[in-house]
Amino acid sequence: MTIEQAVFQADELKPNQVAKAQKIAWLSQLDRRIFKEVISTHEPDADTPKEFAGYTQDTPPDTELLARAPYDDLYPFFLHMHIDLANLEYDKYNNSLLLFSNAWGQFARAYHRGHRFRQEANSLKF
After folding, report:
1. Virtual CA dihedral for 88, 90, 91, 96, nearest 10 degrees?
2. What distances in angstroms separate CA 7 from CA 23, 24, 113, 116, 121, one per listed residue?
3. Which end of the chain, N or C, is surrounded by fewer C-beta atoms within 10 Å?
């Protein structure tokens, strides 16, 4: 899924007044978390990015997001969650949070199954 597709899907399912730049910032926040908490804790493969600098409104809209199909549904859920919170719609926020949390868990578990943990990620550091 690309940045443009994630924003489009979120807007189609939940019309809103949130600026596109804000949605891109939220997607950047999520992919920073994915890179730090999931991707960088595993041994890289040929498709693994070596670093992640984030997205801005100047980032090309056809830029691929880090979570690949079939787990990329977490992006619209994440945007819905933030839109609901920005609109102070707490019941909707809680529902969106639940959908996002489930999608996050499915993505993380699949990534863990398909990639070996880095040695240094498994060792305790004091």
Report:
1. 90
2. 7, 8, 29, 32, 33
3. C
Cβ pair 71, 38 in contact under 8 A: no
pTM for the model: 0.89
Q: Cis bond leading into 70, ω under 30°? A: yes
pLDDT in tens, 2-36: 999 999 999 999 999 999 999 999 999 999 999 99
The per-residue pLDDT for range 39-97, each reduced to its tens digit, is 988 888 878 888 899 999 999 999 999 999 999 999 999 999 999 999 999 999 999 99
Cα of 30 vs its chain's centroid, Å: 4
Contact in structure between 63 and 2 (CB atoms under 8 Å): yes
C-alpha angle 77-2-67 in degrees, rounded to nearest 5 = 60
Residues 6+ apart with CB under 8 A from 1: 9, 64, 65, 67, 68, 69, 72, 75
